[in-house]
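Could someone model iron/sulfur cluster with this protein?
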Amino acid sequence: MTKKIELDLKKRLSNEDALYLIKNASLLELSQLASAKKLEFHPEKLTTFIVDRNINYTNVCWVDCKFCAFYRHKKDEDSYVLKFDEIDKKIDELLAIGGTQILFQGGVHPNLKIDYYEDLVNHIHTKYPQITIHGFSSIEIAFIAKVSKISKLEVLKRLQAKGLSSVPGAGAEILSDRVRDIIAPKKMDTQEWLEVHRTAHNIGMKTTATMMFGTVETDEEIIEHWEHLRKLQDETGGFRAFIMWSFQGENTKLLEEHPEIKPQSSNRYLKLLAVARLYLDNFVNLQSSWVTQGSYIGQMALKFGANDLGSTMMEENVVKAAGAVNRMNQDEMIRLIKDIGEFPAKRDTAYNIIERF
Ligand code: SF4
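Reply:
Sure, complex below.
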């Protein structure tokens, strides 16, 4: 087996190769292969993280994804839309710990139009020009366009003009319409998700790509997901990173409807991460998802292709609502990275190094 993979690694991994690896390769083999690939991109063994904060400006959402435990409807008692001064307070707290980015996402509120979002981004960017606004997933962008009766391109351009820096890859889940129809039937389809990212890339706005696995998808559909991402990255080069995590089922309708869905093992996470590193040969950065996997597997992920620990995560409401409560601060990140013989560094949204430790 190892010989076959070594030969295949000299050229771009095919879908068949990727499937073969998922089904047949051992963890040890995958770790060796993914580490070699990672070293091609990161020969200096620098492992990065960012100090940022998730701000969920609203939990009101009409999309009703079955895997989501975060959203509420407008009439629900605990629904909210943050006021500007509440957002400011959160950013002040972030600045106090040396943070540089807000990951700014809803809910897809049924009534908020482009003017609201322009005011919001403008307010933050004017008051906190030193903070990078990484915000609004493709479903939010698409819905703002629809409800405001303008194109997605116009939404992106207008928000970019007000200070939106980049768009996170949320909402990709698995880019296979069979899976999407089961887990989030009201959400955009695969092509529309790709279209929003392509449109952003075409106006010079970088984005990230994500994957949530562990619901009803097959291995083939995971590869279909990667294939869409690799193709778009070939076309635009606009993805800064790939981030994957496993479905967190607690409090979700999906688990109620599909009790056969089982939690994904750490082995499965590490295996898929390693194959992603090999298949996505045009992605420089792969994040470890310690928020869902815990700090030990988060550290192990660095041996399976990840070169970035993501965020110190001052606040994370969406995954927390579904049961993942891991927390890691900067000192612990630095220790975990040093413990495996790599060099920690704090980065900004664009992966520029800000500080080495
Ligand atoms: S995942 Fe996002 S779009 Fe889907 S229901 Fe939750 S908040 Fe809404």
